[in-house]
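User: For documentation purposes, I need each entry recorded in a consistent format: the amino acid sequence on its own, followed directly by the corresponding structure tokens. There are two entries in this batch. Please keep commentary to a minimum and don't merge the entries.

Assistant: Recorded as requested. Entry 1:
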Amino acid sequence: MQLKDNNNNYKYRTIFFDPIIHQQATITNTEQSYSTRFIVQKRHKYYVIKTKDIAYFTFKDNILHIVTFNKTRYVMDKNVSEIERTLNTSDFFRINRQTIINIEAFDYYENHFNYKILLHFKDNILDPILAGRVKSALFKKWLQGEF
């Protein structure tokens, strides 16, 4: 971005360090709206699934599955990245490339070798998942509300 100073000289300013632009980005992020429900199809019927009822999202065999807390499975025509952008990050965490979990489905984790963790879920709604080093550190911060 070019700006003229008092002597009619051009000065260059980087946008990345402009505090006004940073404030606008922060405001935009806090005002972001999140999905509160999804419309899914099962056989020839369409159902509305509330986000709070979803235990996890998983991507298997090129199909996105939504699994609710009562273990009902639905199929959705989106990918994990598209879903991740619409979810509230205080409730959902993408633990690997295939799976996004709800904080309410999580039960506990165990430390594993090489700074990895093994996540366990309530009511065995999902098999334990081994999270890598990077995701483990992010997950622990997310649990503490720092993410």
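Entry 2:
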Amino acid sequence: MSEKILVRGVNWIGDAVMTMPALKGLRKVYHESRTSLLVKPSVAPIFEKDPTIEEIILYEEKFQGIIGKLRLAQRLKKKGFSKAILFQNAFDAALITFLAGIPERIGYNRDSRGKFLTKRIPYHNDDRKVHHVDYYLNLLKATGISAAFSKPWIFLSLDERLAAREKMSVLRRPVLGINPGAAYGSAKRWLPARFAEVTAWFMRDTKGSVVIFGGAKEGDIANEIEFLVRRKGGTLPPHPPLSKGGQEGGSLSVLNLAGNTSLRELIALISECDVFLSNDSGPMHIAYAVGTPLVALFGSTSPDLTGPVGEGNVVIRPNLPCSPCFERTCNNDDRQCMYDILSEDVYLAIKKILQKKPAVFFDRDGTLCEDANYLSRRDDFRPLPGIDDLAALRSLGFSLIGVTNQSGIARGLVDEDFAREINNVFVERYGFDDFFYCPHLPEEYCSCRKPEPGMLHDARYKCGIDLKKSYVVGDKDADMMLARAVGAKAVLVRTGRQRDSAHADYVAEGLKEAVDFIMKDGRSGDVESRA
């Protein structure tokens, strides 16, 4: 059924990210409807490229006060919304939709706003009992909307990714991103000296670099850490000159960007980090929503409610009776919860999730085997010439991993067990380390359908892959754009219908030529990403 739906979004970056699974679930049920999101300008960029949202309406300062709310209500009324779903808990969220005359108004029955709602969802202080992702999903489920869990995902354009990569090209890889601030209050902030200590260890052990993030009001914290890191850096061995076998990247060790990025730039830059260390904060939520391996520090707040979502992340929290207290500042005036998080534990966590292995990722249909247009029968499975040559890549330490879009599963054209069976042939017969597939339709806007990099992120976690030292081999532009999205090298094989790609680093006639190129390129040590 086609409707015009208004969603009142939340005002904090972290909660905005945690509403994404609910927004995706809403879109899946009302896929023919037009969804508009009403949010403050401070969080609107989170959804700027999100295909589940047709329109973003800014709740600007001019809509504050009684007159402003009436103006906003009149604007919403002209748009003819039939349904309003209120993720924001505030009283005025319900009042404005009531004044706008929206026939169906759904929200939690809290903050004295029940009389303005047509469907009041019972509220029993559940936001202190369940993760906030579930809090928003439960609102939909209580209305009869079957919204399944999905990982929050912030969509980035390729241009945004490339611009961020260019900005960070001055840094040596691997790059540790740190976010030492937290807007909610000082009780959530780990000690600057310990951020600096962990950073110095990272730079010494990996010969890599650090980028410091933060808001305009967190410049003093960032500057203190930069000063301490540079002072500690005086005891570190100097970076060796770049060589063919050395670390890729630039020559800088520290880049302080606190207060110098827009929100969209921040999102893209965090996506380019190899690992991220953060207090419980907006950037922490951004990190897992762009697939960057994350170490999250919790003291006064609870990861059970606002912790990172998805695999490949580590949460460190103290074991204290006063934690979590949910206070902005420490009532005991000692922030013992933050002192109890040791630098050694944090650094060990970073080492645990920092990936080092290179891989070659292969598309399946049209690259490894003939494209049978939704391969669904074993008789139609025909591996392409050169597939036996892939084993040579192992001599240079490459893992072999398959990544394939299989929307035929969702369309009912391909049995999922059969798809797994074919994928497993490459593991058992041709020595692949793993094989990943996306079973979703394009209109589901998942993070795993190429060219979105979700499958590569899963491989990074499960197989220990350093994506920026890797290659993607495929027969379509989507494969080449996938490589560009993560900073891998892109190799187009002319085994399908496509003969060239503006996103390819190399074009090969077939698998053997692709292997020869990767072997030569890999031996040279030139495994840095295409900028």
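Summary note for entry 2:
The first strand starts at residue 4 and ends at 8.
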